[in-house]
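Support case: user asked for a sample of complex input and structure output to validate their parser. Sending the pair below.
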Amino acid sequence: MEELLTATVRGVAQGSLYALLGLGFVIVYKGTRVVNFAQPVLMILGAYFTSAFAVDRGVPFGLAALLAIAVTALVAIVIERVAMRPMVGKPPFAAAMVTVGVFLALQVVAGDLIGLEQRQVGDPWGLDKSSVFGVTVFHSDLASLAIAIVVVLSLGAFFKYTRWGLAMRATAVSQETALAQGVPVGRMFSLSWAFAGGLGAIAGMLVATGGAGFDQTTTLVALKALPAIILGGLDSIRGAIVGGVLIGLAEAYTKTYQADHLAWLGANFDQVVPYLVMLIVLLVRPYGLFGTKEVERL
Amino acid sequence: MRGRPQLFTSYAADQAPLNTRSKRAWFIALIALLLVLPFQLGTELNALMATAFLAAIGAIGLNIVTGWAGQVSLGHAFFLGIGAYTGAALAGDPGGRVTGLGLDMWVWLPASGLVAALVGLAVAPVATRVRGLYLAIVTLGLVFLGEHLFRELEGVTGGAGIGRAGPELVLFGTDLNTTSQFLGLGLDREMKLYFLSLALLAIFAVVAKNLTRSAVGRAFAAVRDRDIAAEVMGVEPTKYKVIAFGVSSFYAGIAGAMLATVTGFIEPGTYDLFLSVEFLAMVLIGGAGTLAGALLGAAFVTLLPRLVEEVPRFLPFITAESSGGFLTVFQLQALIYGCLIVAFLIAEPRGLFGLWVRARNHFRGWLLPH
């Protein structure tokens, strides 16, 4: 029982990271109709900038995190202006492939910045843990969860109550109609990417907390947010959150129990469980759990 | 039609593989060049050229499913891996550490294609249920699951970090690894690989060309351009998507097995997302939906690393070592791929083939542009 609860807490914390990354994917997808394969690089850049400010420059962690979010968002805006804006109106596949190209190129840059060693982000939580009703809980997990909840709620409020949020929603519904109503659609594209960058940075920072650190291969973590959003449905914010948590839980439970009960599935099976869950869900529901079914006419 | 090479009086003539005189001339020149080339190049470059031919087979395969049928697949590496391991297991040394049946190439080569095609057909039902970008992500999942599978099936693959030998080059009982005399010419292993790969490429390119200008190929294009419209016209999207996946996987299987022969050693980590992206880069840089594009792209992407290796001589801040310096050659390669994909998709979506078409049209109308 205790084992189960511990795994659940870890799973939800990990899931909240996927949810944050997934939100970045979904906001870009809804805003610009592009699946952003460059999101993993934004995440690793976020982790790097946090580390660069907090560890290398000695800036307090909170401030370093905010700076990292701002810088990564700026990088995302530049990507959008340089690589994505010319693709407006082109097939969604071509635009998605451009993000793959951006991913390849920026992965090199990020790798070069990070270097060969494992880096830390200088978070205040480290390996601290407490016992709650006999369940061991890492403080970094609690922090991830709390930060994710705050971010999701404030994003929700932004979309619901502000003029910019309304403009972004209008752009998501129909770009041309929004343009006709005086919404600066181009700026909304930039804003979507800025959000993706910021969310990626937060996720990257949180991935590396709790003594885990990060290195050049940490980008693969962000790819697991893809099954999460597919599970939830590409265009559903709620889906990204539910999908993220489900994938996090599936991973944590597999990690805890698979070695004892299903050992024949092999070592590190938890790393591929997200993709397996995604395949099974898509067999039953091709548009994910909350995704809108495409309605098309000739 | 003498003097009017652009005039076609029938659909068949228009769709013929080499439909103008200049194309025929260039094609014959190219073949002649490719037949003479291995005697001029060294061992290393012959192996590299063989790799390029085999990569072209794989790229044609991906082009069938992505370029012609319009189904974006990031899962090509998985099928390359299936082909490689099928070939290696059938050809391998029977008494060795890993599974091996010691079979001849005429068994393992078709078998590796067929097994990959069967796996492709098995996966296709999931793949055809989802569309567009969902499909890209599903096939991405396939690569990760495949990599896990390869790591865990240690009896066949040797396991992560250890690997196993690639398929052996024994065709009809003749060991092709040794140097032999043929028509007074000394042929070493690399030259034989060169000619074998070239022959395979020729066969598979002709098959692909004929497939795409047949009814099946037109159905692919219909599904790609507008699947609902295709369905209305009586073209069954599911059926043709499954066919495209099957054929594509067959090509990937053959390419995977042969590439494993060239490298001589295979390790599960090879068949990862970056291999898929590399093949996608071939198709996109070369030009999606054209045979020449796949060939150009494969040649470009395979030969680029060799060119990049020469770069450190001219640019001192790039090092040939795996670390240190501002950029290593491996990083430079990835950077170039990335930037080229972006640049081509933005500026010339038809890829290298499109650049060629532009240049040709420019010079055709030279001095009299309108």
